[in-house]
Specification:
Blueprint (H helix, E strand, L loop, with lengths): L20 E6 L3 H12 L4 E7 L2 H8 L6 E4 L8 H11 L4 E6 L7 H9 L3 E4 L8 H15 L27 E6 L3 H11 L8 E5 L6 H12 L3 E3 L11 E3 L5 E7 L2 E7 L11 H12 L3 E5 L8 H9 L3 E5 L9 H7 L5 E3 L1 H12 L7
Parallel strand pairs: 1-2, 1-3, 3-4, 4-5, 6-7, 6-12, 7-9, 8-9, 12-13, 13-14
Antiparallel strand pairs: 10-11
Helix pairs in contact: 2-3, 4-6, 6-11, 8-9
């Protein structure tokens, strides 16, 4: 088994910080723990500092040892990984959780549930005889991105070549567009947990997830929000109190034909390289609704949403961003914040309260 992973010289990374990423592996399989440890041992910026064969053991270790990342299997005897996830996050004191499990096949409902509960990301664990160098590369890449996403460089200019002053419209809110990626599922849960049921403005959501996940995610959104949720399809018209979710293989935009506002799906390459991309969605709601549109950028890697946020602000709309402390990765919201496009930079629940206050005509949130 282990012969399939030959020993290699340690490979440093140019982005290495002064201390290695401290990892704990939680998996009931001794073989899996050994293989994962072997993979990570090849990288001198990563250190496996603890291993546990059960969730209970992991919790006890976390009470005594500081780690940066927890690699967690979902299928374990006793307390399963999914049930243990919230407690491990609590005891982890800031540690982020990467689910590595055979239960994380594309479209698996357990993956969406784990992300909703606060996992930073998920990775499919191959069978015992199928660990490959590609899996090792994917694992190390995700560890580095989650543990050390890096600071977003400040931008002096927006995507339009200037720095428009963010503004808050006095018009009634008519459309809300939300963009998110890594850490976004949990952020969405926090956001909608604070958004009152009296808020019935149509909401568009672009969350970076593979296409097979989207039907499950739509169901999860409907369950956790209590709102009708549909995947965007061409011609669909936004309805009060409804969530429209971008499919995993197309940008979701809005267009107006006469008095009718409807969904259009696009698959052309975006500047961010993401499919779906937040940029076209935000740009389109700015064109359709102008000052009556608001965009929200939640946790996510990269800069998707920056260009769209700039176009939305230029059209008279407003943009809000998740704060760094509550984000798994402050890439997307950080880019918008550093471009000075965000009217407010707050945790997801506070953003929801601000938006609700606006919709109710309360000017205090300005």
């Amino acid at each position: 088994m282990l012969a399939t992973l030959p020993a290699q010289a340690k490979r440093p990374t140019s982005a290495r910080s002064s201390a290695p990423i401290r990892v704990m592996i939680v998996d009931d399989s001794v073989v899996a723990r050994a293989v994962l440890s072997r993979v990570l041992a090849d990288h001198d910026d990563i250190e496996v500092v603890a291993q546990a064969g059960s969730a209970d053991s992991a919790r006890r270790i976390l009470d005594e040892k500081k780690v940066d990342i927890i690699l967690l299997d979902l299928e374990m005897p006793g307390v399963c990984g999914l049930a243990a996830l919230p407690e491990l996050i609590q005891h982890g004191d800031g540690a982020r959780v990467l689910i590595v499990s055979s239960a994380c096949a594309d479209g698996a409902a357990s993956s969406i549930a784990a992300l909703r509960l606060g996992a930073a990301d998920t990775l499919l664990k191959p069978g015992a005889a199928q660990f490959t160098s590609r899996f090792g590369e994917d694992l190390v890449d995700r560890l580095r991105r989650i543990a050390r996403p890096g600071k977003v460089e400040p931008q002096a200019r927006s995507a339009q070549g200037g720095t428009p002053a963010p503004q808050v419209s006095t018009r009634r809110l008519e459309c809300l567009g939300i963009g998110s990626s890594t850490g976004g599922v949990h952020a969405l849960a926090r956001f909608f947990g604070a958004l009152p049921t009296s808020f019935t403005t149509p909401i568009l959501i672009t969350q970076h997830l593979p296409a097979p996940y989207m039907p499950y995610f739509a169901g999860q959104l409907a369950e956790m929000t209590g709102r009708p949720t549909r995947l965007g399809v061409p011609g669909l018209q936004p309805q009060p109190g409804e969530l429209l979710l971008a499919p995993g293989d197309a940008h979701m935009t809005l267009f107006k034909t006469g008095p009718v506002i409807h969904v259009r799906l696009e698959r052309k390459r975006s500047v961010s390289g993401c499919l779906p991309s937040v940029d076209p969605m935000l740009a389109s709601i700015g064109k359709v609704y102008g000052a009556a549109a608001v965009g929200v950028i939640l946790s996510g890697m990269g800069r998707d949403g920056l260009i769209g946020a700039g176009e939305l602000v230029a059209a008279g709309g407003s943009v809000l961003a998740q704060d760094e402390a509550s984000s798994v990765v402050w890439g997307m919201p950080g880019a918008v914040a550093n471009a000075r496009l965000a009217q407010a930079i707050l945790p997801p629940d506070e953003l929801a309260r601000r938006i609700a206050a606006w919709s109710e005509g309360d000017a205090a949130w300005k």
